[in-house]
Specification:
Layout: E1 2-3, H1 12-18, H2 35-46, H3 67-86, H4 94-103, H5 106-120, H6 125-146, H7 149-160, H8 163-166, H9 169-184, H10 191-221, E2 224-226, H11 236-248, E3 255-257, H12 261-270, H13 274-285, H14 297-313, H15 319-324, H16 332-365, H17 372-387, H18 391-395, H19 400-415, E4 417-421, E5 435-441, E6 447-456, E7 466-471, E8 482-490, H20 503-520, H21 534-544, H22 551-557, H23 569-577, H24 583-602, H25 610-620, H26 637-640, H27 651-667, H28 676-687, H29 695-703, H30 709-715
Parallel strand pairs: 1-7, 6-8
Antiparallel strand pairs: 2-3, 4-5, 5-6, 7-8
Helix pairs in contact: 1-6, 1-10, 2-3, 3-4, 3-5, 3-6, 3-7, 6-10, 7-9, 10-14, 12-13, 12-17, 16-17, 16-24, 19-20, 20-21, 21-27, 24-25, 27-30, 28-29
Domain Peptidase M3A/M3B catalytic: 267-716
GO molecular function: carboxypeptidase activity; metal ion binding; metalloendopeptidase activity
Cofactor: Zn(2+)
Length: 720
Amino acid sequence: MMKNFNIVPSLLLSAILMGCSGANTTSEQPVVSEQSDVVSAKAQLLAPWEGPYQGVPAFDKVNYVGLDAAFDEAMALHLAEIETIAQNPAPATFENTVVAMEKAGKPLRRLYTYYGIWRSNMSSKEFREISKNLGPKLSAYGSKINQNEALFKRIQTVYEGEEFKTLNAEQQRLTWLTYNGFAHYGATLSAEKKKRYADINQELSVLHTQFANNVLADEENYVVFFSEEQTGGLPQSYLAAASKAAEQRGKPGMYAVTNTRSSMSPFLTYSTERALREQVWNNYYNRGDNGDEFDNNENIAKILQLRHERVQLLGYENYASWRLQDRMAKTPENAMKLMTTVWPYAIKRVEEEVEDMAVLAEKLDGLDKIEPWDYRYYSEKVRKEKYDLDSNEVKQYLELDNLREAMFYVAGRLFDFSFKEVSDGSVPVFHPDVRVWEVTRKSTGENVGLWYLDPFARQGKRSGAWATSYRSHTTFEGKTNVLSSNNSNFVKGVDGQPTLISWDDAETYFHEFGHSLHALSSNVTYPSLNGGVRDYTEFQSQLLERWLTTDEVIDNYLVHYKTGEPMPAELIAKIKAAANFNQGFKTTEYLASALVDMKFHMTDPKGINADKFEYVTLTKLHMPTELVMRHRSPHFGHIFSGEGYAAAYYGYMWADVLTSDAAQAFEQAPGGYYDEDVAKKLVEHLFSVRNAVDPADAYRAFRGRDAQVEALLKDRGFIE
């Protein structure tokens, strides 16, 4: 998942409420109340970045004591800059209006980096208390910009004036994006409606933050401890990490399953303890749905009702129609058409997978029904029987450092990038686990930027994997380099032992690196053009997953963590033969979430009950009972802890179609996945332009036509 936030006023609120990435050296900092400490901390948070590589975040110096005051000052500074632009007596031009807005807000942009780290990578109860108070302030600030009539009139003048015709294509797109962003977020409303719009944003800011905090609380509060006698089936690498997790939680001699996907999924895959599997499954899939102080059902109802009311102020029938108007899909109906085309194939495949599992479950354990907490376990049994493929055996060849070097190799071949670790302490980091590499162009030695890696799970770090940028490429005020970051939740090897991960996790590792390559490849002029539309920006990263299975990567980097021997040919053959194994489960759990998301936002939510709505929607879709949504509604942070993926979770599948179609271009090329001509077109048309070109036009420039859904169905083995 990519997070890359620039100060585009119309998008500012949703960006900060989703979270980004930023900084610190400890997740439990003492809150100091002395005014001098607050002033000093505030000044450090707002200070320009110093040091090498055009300046880097001062992760070793900042703390959140002055965060609230820093936001007050940064917002005030930005509002003053905006007001100067709005009240400029000179006629509105592209330079004194649109470009001036691009230049504004630098202290606030830097502050978001730190805030995002504390929110996503280094959270604590103290920080979450501070963040609760920030939401309404940020909402009010965003509304002051979005509803500044004088500013919008100047933007409108540039967009509708004669000068627009003389601008180059990139400048025209920036102007359109700026104008459309303001119109999209209420700039054309009457004064009365503007006030209600702003009030709704205030309420939503609180609810989004509360939703996210509730999920994190359930992730921290629910842990399953088990004894030596209950370790059956679990690999030693998992047990070592689970032992350490238990010790950290005051249970030495025990083992702990934490309430995160990286801990839950392997336990459900390998543990022979069915009762424990059920408990772990319930803990994970009931996050935010336990009927206690952290229950999110009421928050969901309020969020949906407020979103619906807000878009009705703008004249839209529902939230989904408003959200998709500037996406590749354009309408919710188009998005639904894609999903409902794939859905029957996915659930049919689930039926086949369950039939295979049921035979083994009856034979091995006398079970007559596969429950959701059984799916991963018996699926793994089927995998071993059908393909003689043991996931734990595969992990022995998936060592984290080797995979990182494989990603660097791919980046060198396709993107002309070279990576050299910065280990002299000149670049501060927010945690000892974080490492940094300088990125240069292999052909010229030119500095491209830095790449930060925060790979391991820990308390206070939200689950999942994501990418973010602390600074993006621009040239309009002199060329800036890129500070990009990847963040994961791998279970760290104990006592210096190598970290071994699953094949799925290896794909995710490549996926998130694709987001970083997208940022590092940028060749745009203005900050706002480093953004993108949600049903397109996942495409580039999903495409990069394909290079994990190339011969060059397998032969040189997928080596046994002890012996250094390459992965045997027979094991490689098994992996490729099993490439579409469990595709029913993967596609269905994802599509269920995407369909429920879209249905939530196409419905009048008056009196809605989230749990009931989820159940009824999935029942109508004939959802198989042996599995659930990938993200159940009460912990579906993509759509309820912010608005970045709301009515847009379908975007992963839209991007999947692009991915499958683009992969065919490489497969059909003389040089395969390392074909120089196709790679050049890939970087030129699909990575470097970011959002400076309409995504549909960019894809056609690369492929010569639109993408075709049949490529996806073939890729997943649903059709021949």
